[in-house]
Design brief:
12 helices, about 325 residues, alpha/beta, globular
């Protein structure tokens, strides 16, 4: 990691008495866990901290084991904070309405591992070779000198576990496993993470799975599988959007595919697309071409148009037989 940037960020955080922080809209375990770890540690150190993310301000129940009481709605974040920290966010627009808060902040620290991040902010710690933002945040907290409490450790381990696919993805490196071991030694609860994140879902989730799986299409010539999630699928099942975040992991299962896409319809003119790759195809580059971002094997983008248009945009960027 860039030790100079770590030192600069640590000093900025030590000097600030009031800190606003945010992760990207629609938080995952890495963005949320990293931010809540920092918020918890900052509070323990006597700092005044606001942790939030852009609308829709909602989370699936799976994350209830994390210190969600530290979160505040975006409208409660000070408009001109002394210091703003952005976690797991590749570009300012991924902060939603909190992007304007970042612009007015006295100083902005960015902690991220997305290869598409061009380094916005005053101090940008961007480490694409590191497994997760949580792993970087652990190094930053150590540089600051704040204790890694069991609450902090569990939040950080959540980020590492979720962004490495339970240590199954190629971003799992020796340092990743060392960091995870250190967090468990500090009191992290891996059984909480496993149970709540991977072994729980509301009953209605099964209805959504049935519909989305039933629509799945395999394009064998491009080794491409995709499906569509409609708002009524969620409404009819009585679940929230956050409850179905893991559906892309179902769509990517077919062994005949190298790339998977889940197209989530937001309204009549907008869809959001999650992409996954087995490694042969760089879906991070595909997403970046289409205005999004992410990693080689996991990425996403927002598309103005109908599902078929979004699928077509991905299809034309895939190799084929």
């Amino acid at each position: 990691m860039d030790q100079k940037k770590l030192a600069q960020a640590a000093e900025a955080i030590r000097q600030a008495s009031k800190i606003a922080m945010a992760c990207h809209v629609g938080p995952d375990g890495d963005g949320l866990g990293s931010m809540l770890a920092m918020a918890s540690a900052a509070g323990d150190a006597g700092k005044e901290a606001w942790a939030s993310f852009g609308t829709p301000f909602e989370l699936p129940d799976n994350y209830r084991f994390l210190p969600l009481d530290l979160l505040v709605p975006p409208e409660q974040v000070p408009a001109e904070p002394e210091l703003f920290i952005a976690f797991d966010t590749g570009s300012p627009d991924r902060l939603g309405e909190l992007g304007s808060v970042a612009k007015r902040a006295g100083s902005v620290v960015v902690v991220d591992h997305h290869v598409t991040n061009e380094g916005f902010g005053d101090i940008a710690i961007v480490e694409p070779e590191v497994s997760s933002t949580a792993e970087i945040t652990l190094a930053l907290l150590r540089r600051i000198g704040w204790p890694i409490t069991p609450v902090v450790a569990t939040a950080l381990l959540t980020g590492i576990v979720t962004d490495t696919g339970r240590f199954q993805y190629s971003n799992t490196r020796p340092g990743t496993l060392v960091a995870a071991a250190q967090l468990v030694a500090a009191g992290a609860r891996p059984e909480q993470i496993g149970q709540h994140v991977y072994e729980e879902a509301p009953f209605g989730y099964l209805q959504v799975v049935s519909k989305v799986a039933g629509r799945a299409v395999l394009e064998a010539d491009r080794r491409f599988v995709w499906s569509v999630l409609f708002p009524e699928d969620i409404e009819d099942a009585g679940v929230g959007r956050g409850d179905v975040d893991g559906l892309i992991d179902l769509i990517r299962l077919p062994v005949e595919s190298d790339v998977a896409a889940l197209v989530k319809v937001i309204d009549d003119t907008t869809v959001r697309v999650s992409l996954r790759s087995r490694g042969r195809v760089d879906v991070g580059s595909i997403a970046a071409e289409l205005g999004g971002g992410g990693h080689h094997n996991a990425s996403g983008f927002t598309f103005s148009g109908i599902p078929e248009g979004a699928v077509g945009a991905v299809r034309e960027r895939l190799p084929h037989d």
